[in-house]
Amino acid sequence: MVEMAQHEIVRPSPLLDDDGRLAQVGWARQPLLDCNLENAAFYRLRPLQRFRIKRWDYYGVTLPDLYFSATIADLGYAGQVFIYAVDFNAATYHEETITIPLGRGIDLPRNSDAGTSRFEGSRAALEFSSGGGRRAIHVEWADFAGRPLSARLSFTEPPESTAVVIPIGDRRFYYNRKINCMPAEGELSIGGEVRDVDPSTSSGNLDWGRGVWAYRSFWVWASASGFVDGIRRFGLNMGFGFGDTSEATENTVLIDGLIHKLGKVDFEYDPSNFMRPWTMTSNRVDLEFIPFLDRSATTHLLLIDSGVHQVFGRYAGTVTLDDGETVRINDLVGWAEEHHARW
């Protein structure tokens, strides 16, 4: 298999030019582009454009026996904040969601490297802050399966992360930053039961997304943040679906804080039974993913309709790095998901 060309963005610029077109397309190790969404130009009536722009900050933390996630999202027509926790040993999860008409009360920063995201309501308050290579999330949720939940977590960013700019048709696009393997510390309390989050065993991740999608969208995303050889931090980020990926995919692995870029990765899975084993293969990837839980979530809100199967499981296999080293993976907890959306 011939490795596809990958265009690496290495110089700063605005995301969009004066005509609302992407100034650069490709991938980067750093968030080099200024996310000037005010230049977006895909409707003649500019006031309508805000309803088609999607923005979200999705944080997660992988503990030895638990995954916890918190999201603040503005989908244009509506906003959503949600949290969920996955128990690896029991193979169970619980999720809570609040939907906010027109995203009122949601604040999200312009760029991914600094700023504060927040929402505060009668049921929950969430605040995410970033700057100087550090991140923190603070969540207070009054009723999480009948119990109060509190999370106070901080993360240290690795030297490199994965940023991609993918065109979708003529004037639509996706600008995304994924950070894996952030050492995480703090505490998570559910119903008064406090878990200490230890950076030696816990890893945080971020999915920061901004863009304008086609109304009907589809994607598959696979991710993990953990350890290989007991001590080396290892993360993977792979996917396919929407947009023109001829300049770059989002496929990368991160080890020891540095990104190793992958080309196209082939996924094989059974969309009629997501709990069957998945495989991800290329000339540098040979992975099997064995699920233990299907987190299935749907949203039905007039113009917005989405369905996701986020399947948690364990990865095993090999990945070849840029320098030719083969890394062996065994029992790495992560997820793979299929998402369909009309939004």
Describe the structure.
- This protein is mainly beta and 343 residues long.
- Helices cover 0% and strands 62% of the residues.
- The strands form 3 sheets. Strands 2, 4, 5, 6, 7, 8, 9, 10, 11, 12, 13, 14 and 15 form a 13-stranded antiparallel β-sheet that branches. A 9-stranded antiparallel β-sheet has the order 19-18-17-16-24-23-22-21-20, with no helix packed on it.
- A hairpin with a 4-residue loop joins strand 6 and strand 7 (92-101).
- The mean pLDDT is 93.
Name its key features:
mainly beta, nine-stranded antiparallel sheet, 24 strands, 13-stranded antiparallel sheet, 343 residues, globular, single chain
Put simply, the count of helices is: 0
- Cα shape: globular
Report the strand count.
Answer: 24
How much of the sequence lies in strands comes to over 45%
Low-pLDDT sequence parts: none
* H-E order: EEEEEEEEEEEEEEEEEEEEEEEE
Overall mean confidence score, pLDDT: 93
Distance between the termini: 36 Å
Structural class: mainly beta
Largest β-sheet summary: 13 strands, antiparallel
Give the radius of gyration. Answer: 19 Å
Helicity level: under 10%
